[in-house]
Specification:
binds guanosine-5'-diphosphate; alpha/beta; binds magnesium ion; Rossmann fold; about 40% helix; globular
Length: about 200
């Protein structure tokens, strides 16, 4: 079982990207489970995903890096025994500090060595404004990342796209960074992102 955590602020495009990745993996025969920690703009249609062989668990009403740490480990444990997925996607609340997630899972021996891939989702439209007021939180999303996805290419100016690329490269030099326009339905491929 491999875990993929999508970090990023609320509204950056985490659920939209997650659904693209999950559909792609399910279509190629992988079993996929999804844990969401926040309801954003884009909801997850559980029935539709079930038809694809994907199931969704919701951990709502708190943040998995503080109040819901126990529930996260418990849910993961239940998913792994009852559902045995190849991939588990985790979308933490945009307000959570992702660095607390591995330590939350370490309490459960089964997950001490769980392979986690981190993908940071960055909204170039709001980056400057958010970094100005929430710099440590915004940076924490990138500092753990193995790869980054800059969304909303269709709406951002070339200057905003370049600023986002530079900000990511300064914090995590050399990580794979891909710009996407998810509105047009472009398939965002997990394979295109990792390894890079
Ligand atoms: N135009 C455009 N809208 C996007 C793109 N990616 C996400 N969105 C929109 O941004 C909003 C927030 O996306 P969502 O996936 O819910 O973000 P989350 O809160 O990080 O999960 C939604 O209305 C999406 O349709 C993109 O590449 N282009
Ligand atoms: Mg979301």
């Amino acid at each position: 079982m491999q875990m993929i955590v999508l970090t990023g602020f609320l509204g950056s495009g985490k659920t939209t990207a997650l659904l693209c990745f999950a559909r792609e993996l399910a279509a190629s025969g992988s079993r996929v489970a999804i844990i969401v920690n926040e309801i954003g703009d884009v909801g997850i249609d559980n029935l539709l995903l079930k038809q694809l062989g994907t199931d969704v668990w919701e951990l709502l009403g708190g943040c998995i890096c503080c109040t819901l740490t126990g529930q996260l480990a418990e849910t993961l444990s239940r998913i792994s025994t009852d559902y045995a997925p190849d991939y588990v996607f985790l979308e933490p609340s945009g307000a959570s500090n992702p660095t607390a997630i591995p330590s939350a899972l370490q309490y459960n021996k089964a997950f001490r060595y769980l392979r986690i891939t981190w993908i940071a989702i960055v909204d170039p439209l709001r980056l400057e404004e958010l970094v100005e007021v929430l710099e440590p939180l915004m940076e924490s999303h990138i500092l753990v990342a193995d790869a980054a996805l800059i969304t909303k290419q269709d709406l951002a100016t070339p200057g905003q796209m370049e600023a986002a690329r530079k900000w990511i490269a300064t914090l995590r030099p050399g990580i794979c960074c891909i710009a996407v326009d998810m509105k047009s339905g472009t398939l965002v491929s997990l394979r295109g992102l990792l390894p890079c």
